[in-house]
Structure formats: structure tokens, C-alpha cells
Design brief:
This protein is α/β, with parallel strands linked by helices. The protein has 8 helices and 7 strands. The protein has one domain: Rossmann fold (3-Layer(aba) Sandwich), CATH 3.40.50.
């Protein structure tokens, strides 16, 4: 269906060398987009870009550390040098160096979480949005988390950052909507990624989570990639400022 086609579009996906970010990049490429793969390690980025090219898609690797504004500026500049524009921006990369109660949260860990998960997204959006406004078209997708929708005893700082991402999307949707730019969040539940391994690699904890989830399973990265295609394409042209929850139903189950 043409509503989901992204032919001629250029997409930048941060944190796309593995997990949810890789799935999003692969789905966007399969829908016809030219995709820039970006994470800290060049070799990991190139591996994913090559896999997309081997599958018949178009992809390039541009490594960047999201915590470094100069590297984000380089990511944007290099993408424009390669393909002349950025139509879709996916802010997926995130950090979570601390697991525990807020009462014991070190200042440096809290600062890193807010810096990489919120401020870096703000930087990257502001680097790309003016260009989109010139064309009166664009889509920004921020990967948040259901952690931003409820309280947490052990992931409080991460949850704060993910709630902030939802508000960042709402603010930007209001500010840039007059330029036909859509800004939305995806809020995954527990997904089988390396990033979330501590939450699903314990068989007892996994069984408890699956029992509480209406679909009786945790998610896979490919459960998220297609949502990004929806939000990036004509199919999502009237959706902005929203958070789409993809969690197997756990947040509505009690």
C-alpha cells in the first residue's frame, strides 16, 4: 500500500546498530527509505548498513556518540552530504547506567541519563527541524518507554527521562506543526534486547512478566519497527504529539 511507502525519503536512526534501533532502520529501509545507521562504534554501524544493502536497501554508516553535540552535528552534516536531506529522524539511542532506588542515585548517573536521553534528543531535533520546515514536511520519532507512564522503584531516573521525551515530543509537535512536521513517541514495553537483558534474562522474572501481560509474551525488536514506518509515512500524516504504546497490553492489565 502506498500509504506506507517511504521511497525517496532519507532517515537517520540513532542507536541503530542493534535492538529496537536496528529493527526500525531495517523496516524503514524495507519501506523504501535511505537509512543512516548511527551508534558509537563504526564497525557495528557498518555491519548493519551492509546487511541492509545486501537485502536490497540503501544504507550508510555514520557513527556518533549522542552525548557529544559536535558528533551529532557531524551526523547531520554527513547525512546531508551523502543524500542532501533528512526527512525522518528517529531518536532511539539512550543510556541507563543505574538500576536502583532514587534515594541512592549518584548525581553523575542522573546527569548522564538526562543528558543522553533528553538533552541529546533536543539537540538533534533542533539540528534537523529547520530543514524539514523549509520543505514543509518531516517526521520525528522519539523512542520512549512505558517506564515514562508509571512510577518505578528501581528505574526511576530512566523513567523520568522517558516521561520527559514524551513531553518533548508534545512540545515540538505544537511548535513545528504549522510546518507540517509530525513529532511522536513510541513507548515500548519489555523488549528482548541487550539493553533490557537484566529485565528478561532471569527465567523467574520473565515468567512473572509474561503472566501479567495479556499477550503472554515480551516483545521482540520487530514488534516496534513497523510502528516507526507508520509514523514516518503518509499513513501517519495526521498523527502528531502522540505516544504509541507497544507493550503487549501490560499497562492496561492492572
Amino acid at each position: 500500500m502506498k500509504a506506507f511507502q517511504l521511497n525517496g525519503r532519507v532517515a537517520v536512526v540513532t542507536g541503530s546498530s542493534r535492538g529496537i534501533g536496528r529493527s526500525i532502520a531495517e523496516h524503514l529501509a524495507a519501506a523504501g527509505a535511505k537509512v543512516v545507521i548511527s551508534s558509537r562504534k563504526a564497525s557495528a554501524c557498518e555491519e548493519v548498513a551492509q546487511a541492509i544493502r545486501d537485502a536490497g536497501g540503501e544504507a550508510a554508516a555514520v557513527p556518533a556518540n549522542i552525548g557529544d553535540k559536535a558528533q551529532l552535528e557531524h551526523l547531520v552534516a554527513e547525512t546531508r552530504s551523502l543524500w542532501g536531506r533528512i526527512d525522518v529522524l528517529v531518536c532511539n539511542a539512550a543510556s541507563n547506567p543505574y538500576y536502583g532506588p532514587m534515594s541512592a542515585l549518584p548525581d553523575d548517573a542522573f546527569t548522564k541519563i538526562l543528558h543522553n536521553n533528553v538533552i541529546a534528543n533536543h539537540w538533534l531535533c533542533n539540528l534537523v527541524l529547520p530543514e524539514m520546515a523549509q520543505r514543509s514536511d518531516g517526521a520525528v520519532i522519539i523512542v520512549s518507554s512505558i517506564g515514562g507512564l508509571k512510577g518505578s522503584g528501581m528505574l526511576g531516573a530512566y523513567a523520568i527521562s522517558k516521561a520527559a521525551d514524551m513531553q518533548l515530543a508534545r512540545n515540538l509537535a505544537v511548535e513545528w506543526g504549522k510546518h507540517n512536521i509530525r513529532v511522536n513517541c513510541i513507548a515500548p514495553g519489555l523488549i528482548r534486547t541487550d539493553f533490557a537483558r537484566a529485565l528478561w534474562d532471569n527465567p523467574k522474572l520473565l515468567a512473572q512478566t509474561e503472566a501479567m501481560t495479556p499477550l503472554r509474551r515480551i516483545g521482540d525488536p520487530d514488534d516496534i519497527g513497523g510502528i516507526a514506518v507508520l509514523l514516518a509515512s503518509r499513513a501517519g500524516a495526521f498523527v502528531t504529539g502522540q505516544t504509541i504504546v507497544a507493550d503487549g497490553g501490560i499497562t492496561i492489565a492492572g
